[in-house]
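haha ok so turns out i had the wrong file open the whole time. this is the CORRECT one, sorry everyone. sequence first:
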Amino acid sequence: MHNEIKIRIHELIDEDYQKFASALIPTNDNVLGVRMPALRKLAKEVAKGDWRTYLKTASDESFEEVMLQGLVIGYVKADIEEILHYVQLFIPKIDNWSICDSFCVSLKMTKQHKERMWEFLQTYLLSDKEYELRFGIVMLLDYYIESETICSVLALLNSVKHEGYYVKMAVAWAISICFIKFPEVTMGYLEENDSLDKFTYNKALQKITESLRVDPEVKRVIRQMKK
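then structure:
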């Protein structure tokens, strides 16, 4: 089955897009150049068929083949525990920000299983592996920046200690989303914070000021908080 999927993927290659996509993911040299809408369409098709056999036999040779597996897991209809089994098997394959973030946003069943997924994520939020940790952080910013969990999310972000660039950028991104959605709570967190490293703290401020959803006067205040 995986040979058939491999052929389908290669038929979707856009050589012009390949150069652009490769530049966005400098950590990988196996980007074929398939646009995301085409991959998502294929993933939905696979998810409606014998997706279990596909996931057991799928190739990890190219960026797109790994991405497709993650998208399929997000689209399948199955019991939450079975889906989490496949999520757990997939996470070690994540080796770049693009697959991580696209995988997270595809796991929309999280919205119906908030408590179970929160429990599941805790292991990854304590990981010392860069992309496992980024997975946990991006899952928080995609699904848990809400009134019931904002304080817990900020506490978890504050506890992250990792030197990986893609972890630091994920934390900064998450803090900026916290600020956009809950400005007062997050401002208090930033004003009292002495745990974030300087790079992550300043990146969070930068991302807040780049948002179109933040008032210019508030941006002025934020800029003055730079360390």
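The CA atoms of residues 101 and 224 lie 31 Å apart.
again sry for the mixup
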